[in-house]
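Internal ticket #5521
Category: modeling
Description: The requester needs a full-assembly model to guide mutagenesis choices. All entity lines are attached below as received. Residue total reported by intake: 295.
Assigned to: D.W.
Attached entities:
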Amino acid sequence: MTNSTGAHEEVETLRTIVSSISTSARSPEEDLRDLNNFGINWYITEEGTLMIRYWQVAAGGFVSPERAATIRSNVPFPEQIDELDWLSKNFQTIRNRYAGQWIALYANRIVAASPNLPDLMNQVVEFDRPFVTFIPPGPLVWTSTYAGQNF
Amino acid sequence: MPDKTFEHVVRFFQYQDPNGQVMGFPRVDITLITASNNRIFLSLLFDTGADFTTLRADFYPILGLHSWDEGQRVDISTVGGPSVAYQYTATLEIFGKIITCPIHLAQMPSNPFYSGLLGRNTVFNEFGFGFWESTNELYVTGNP
């Protein structure tokens, strides 16, 4: 078994977001709304410093893939169950920023993005079961007969 | 009178566009185990009309391929007319079962909320499904 605290890619992603905030011409409120959209916990100190909580602990090889499948079939995996709902809820914001790119979602935040799928796959090797999808630059196409149905 | 029992209930996915129009579909979340043994979460449209589980062609890198059309060519019929798919083999985890099955790559419109279709070949043999349109729910048993 190997243990790791966080993942290098996640730290890089966070660094990119923070750099973007510090150089952004947008208002602080807009930046904070983006942090919320990406599922990043934050708070503001009395001095006005933005503090961000961003960490996770992984225990690789904890069980075999076969045993993992058995365990996972009986126990919900809350942080991944609603990835699509999170994407749906935040889709306009995500499309504005990532149109034309592949993205990977993990624990309701974007952990990697790239115009190139093999490059994205290299960025997410340390994540177990990230949700991978492509954000089309144009309008969404719904070919399913369920499109437009009144849910 | 038949009496079926299901262990899983999957609610249909819903998306509301900026104009307020609501769209959705019966979704099944799967884990694709890649050639390099990584696990990727994908969402597929539950499709009893699809003979084979099918991914959009641009997902070919996660199968370890250099192009989408290097596999066995298969002529298929779609709602839009005759088309072409290429067949491969993939290992999927679906509702806690690890299944190795044939999988097609085919050209489909890009939609970020689903990567392809969950089709019948091999996969459906492992499960029983109950389709509840009125409640927008898919019921699933792994003990058909």
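Resolution: model delivered.
Comment from assignee: The domain at 27-126 of chain B is CATH 2.40.70.10 (Cathepsin D, subunit A; domain 1).
Ticket closed.
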